[in-house]
Fold this sequence. Notes:
By secondary structure, this protein is of the alpha+beta class. It is built from seven helices and five strands; from the N terminus they run ββαβαβααααβα. It has helices at 27-30, 49-63, 79-89, 94-100, 105-113, 120-130, 155-163, and strands at residues 13-18, 21-25, 40-42, 71-75, 135-139. A hairpin with a 2-residue loop joins strand 1 (13-18) and strand 2 (21-25). It is globular and about 50 Å long.
Amino acid sequence: MICEMCGADVPKLKKIMIEGSNLSVCQKCARFGHDHTVNKVLEDSTYSTTIGERLQRREKRLKTKDVFEQSSDELALDYPKRIRKARSSMGWGQDDLAKKINEKKSVVAKLENGDMIPDEKLIKKLENALGISLKEKVSAVETPKRSSPRKGLTLGDFLKVEKE
Ligand SMILES: [Zn+2]
């Protein structure tokens, strides 16, 4: 299930209310919502197809990499492939990599199958052990900023405005 805020693929989503709109987000992003609305874990059965389709389209758009504006570093969507490729190019088995990062072999297997989302700490360990990057620039959550009339104003413009 894909978090509507950060695009992370997580096993469980929380439904929260942000600025009047309902979003299904991961645990991390749920913190941005108001606590009293963070009360309902969205079950698979209530996961609407419409949202699913919308998120799939967004995922595709993120992959096209033409959205560098407002971008931030996120876990690459193809991290399982990156890990497996880097590991085999090192000539390591899953158990070798597991030892390097101090985790169980099953953790490596899950990561490579995309069954587990590594947290920041695990990402760092994997990146260091394999000498690769698991992050990529992706567009941040769509915000109205894009159409803000202030966009393009320089500091000089602001100063002028203040003098008037
Ligand atoms: Zn999220």
